[in-house]
Design a protein that fits this description.
Elements: H1 7-17, H2 26-38, H3 40-56, H4 60-76, H5 80-84, H6 87-97, H7 104-120, H8 125-140, H9 153-183, H10 186-211, H11 217-234
Amino acid sequence: MDDRPSDDVCALLSMVCAGDATNPDWGVILELCDVVGANATDAEATSRAIQRLLSRRESEDQVSLALVTTETIMKNCPSFVELVASRLFLQEIVALVDGDGRYPDASARALRMLQEWSTEYPSQPMFRDTFVQLQLQSASASSTDHDETVSAKPSLAHEFDKLRQDLVVVEDKIKTYVNLVALGNCEDADDVLDFLQQCQPRMNTLIEAGLAGKLDEATLETCLTVNDRLIKVLEGNVSADNDSEPKAPALYSLNDTNPDYVSGPFSTIALSEPPPAPHRYHPDMV
């Protein structure tokens, strides 16, 4: 099959991505939406062309506009969502988020989009799984910045709350895998196992951060409990797990001074994000 984008797709994408990220050409983007919505072949070609743009990452404006275009097409062409939920496309999103820091605004937008997709499209579990893996990886990253002020602590509390939610997701995936194996559903079980295998190294790094004082004791205990169950499953022990549920860590308190939350695992996460792309009839496009 010829995977080259059509001339129309190439021309429209080139026009969009040659512009200014602060002032996207919504008319051309919506014209591209019409092309994608009218022809499945052009939709696939558009997906591949955007992947190439994200892979090359020639400039921050180009990458940001490619993300804006992706987001807008998804909102206007529901069938495009499945193409974005592919492993190849999401690999480019992850690579951008985990990049070398050259394009911080584009990276923040990519992470914000992935987080929104994880809740907006529950029928596409790849979005949620990919976002959870990124969160675990971000949580386990150590920080060298010790100059944060007390005003940053509420935001850190929010990040730790998201970590707890991510650990619950991993726990649920473990239970799902055990149930699928028991039912003999090998195909779905393999998909869940792939997710769990990717989680293990990040769980190990997260535990190392906790042992170094980057997590509170209750959160570290939960990490250890989930990790023990994860290891058992990956080693082939898929018998019913009758252990009690891990305790929910206590909420973060502004009065806490130990362990060191300020230099903790979330201190490198950017909390300011650019605004999302508008829907088709956004007033800015008039």
